[in-house]
Amino acid sequence: MLKIITKFLLLLVLGYALLFVSVFAAQMLAAALRDPDAALIDNTPLGKANRRTETAAIVESIRKIVTMERTPQYQRDAHSKPHGCVRATFEVFESQTTYNHGIFKTPGKYQAWIRFSNGSVPALVDTKNDARGMAIKVMNVPGEQLLPPLLAGKTQDFVMINSPAFFIRSTADYRELEKAVARGEPFSYFFGAHYLNPFEWRLRQLYLALGTRKTAPATPLSAQYYSMTPYNLGPNQIKYSAKACENYQAPGVDYSQPNFLREAMKKVLSKQDTCFQFMAQIRKPNERMPIEDPTVEWSEEKSPYVPIARVHIPKQGFDTAAQNDMCEAMSFNVWHAVKGFEPISYFNLLRREVYLHTAAYRQVRNGMQAIEPNSWCDSLEQYCPQAPVDNASVGSTNVDVILPVSNSEQ
After folding, report:
1. Which end of the chain, N or C, is less surrounded by CB atoms within 10 Å?
2. Which domain holds residue 156?
3. What region does 235 belong to: left with phi over 0, alpha with psi -120 to 50, or beta?
């Protein structure tokens, strides 16, 4: 009898393994054959109403997650673990007219803050595979802002992770994921409530999600980061990326420690300047480069990334209580942008509402003041020209305000 039961269980396991492989193969094939955007473009009144409902549900789920994961501060709903905020300059190159729109219209240098982070919530130790984030806030940018005046400031934000594609295809799927996370059952999104019904499995999305969870780089300064979603740059559609100028190493750092990425970044920046190439990838409409489906990577062979700016991170110390607090009070939103460089796609529209609502929710409960700074000095007094220089936190770099090369009013 025991042998019969054992054989039955073995056959059941093998049957489900075969079913798993079959469902995964079918979902991957279906994704490869379909028009990526076809089922996602719905501008009917019903489609717009459904997206408003989905957005409201997502905001509510994220509020639950932020409340559930407070420690005791209310954290970001994603990328809650920072490796630090560093001072940087963002230099726009003089380039061909294809790229001369928005912030890239006029060559010049701007002051910026960059926040590096891990992606998961709750936060994981750095030794675990995870998405890694790079968010840039460029300050004192001329031009008409996309957000209303009370929300806008004069900043241009670029938000990226170290993966070129997302694992969620639609806002409806995103709503279901956030509901599952808010229940404390994130894997139920991929396998359904009881894990046994193959019609509820989302195996392609699970595969893509696991692809965003990477081994940590040597330092956050050594990776390449991607926008994942598209933007209008004048008449063209682009994605953008920031690629480290070199593979910066931090010898002597203990990579078994839970926060080694912060320590590695501190070690590198205590000794040298670093930089990133900021690049744009132009969409070719006749190629498989969808606007609405962020799970499809745009081919670099069909359209390579072209450098249009340079991010310079000077030698510095950044791990101070004041700078860490400033870093966590700051919010990043792709809609902090000037006209000529506009987020597009339903996902970016969703991000507009979600980022604004959740940032306000977190900041109010933490007693933080939400402001969009115009300079390092606006952010922290120690970086004002008249302030005494603290070599431990400032480093050797001049802290004078750097203005864009422009005749526009600032």
Report:
1. N
2. 34-385
3. alpha
Q: How far apart are CA 266 and CA 233, in angstroms?
A: 35
**DSSP category for residue 397:** S
Q: Give yes or no for a contact between 274 and 268, defined as CB atoms under 8 angstroms apart.
A: yes
Residue 362 within any structural domain of the chain = yes
Say if 332 falls within a structural domain.
yes
> What total of structural domains would you count in the chain?
1
Name the nearest CA neighbour of 308 among 404, 225, 233, 405: 233
pLDDT tens string, the chain, 410 residues long: the values are 777 777 777 877 788 889 889 999 999 999 999 999 988 888 899 988 999 999 999 999 999 888 888 888 888 988 999 999 999 999 999 877 889 999 999 999 999 999 999 998 888 999 999 999 999 999 999 999 999 988 889 999 999 999 999 999 999 999 999 999 888 888 899 998 888 888 899 999 999 999 999 999 999 999 999 999 999 999 999 999 999 999 999 999 999 999 999 999 999 999 999 999 999 999 999 999 999 999 999 999 999 999 999 999 999 999 999 999 999 999 999 999 999 999 999 999 999 999 999 899 998 888 887 789 999 999 999 999 875 544 334 333 333 333 333 333 33
Among left, alpha and beta (phi > 0; psi -120 to 50; other), residue 108 is left
Residue 1 in any domain: the answer is no
Residue 403 forms part of a structural domain: no
**Among 197, 198, 183, 171, CA closest to 56:** 171
Instruction: Tell me how far apart the alpha carbons of residues 349 and 136 are, in angstroms, rounded to a whole number.
Output: 19
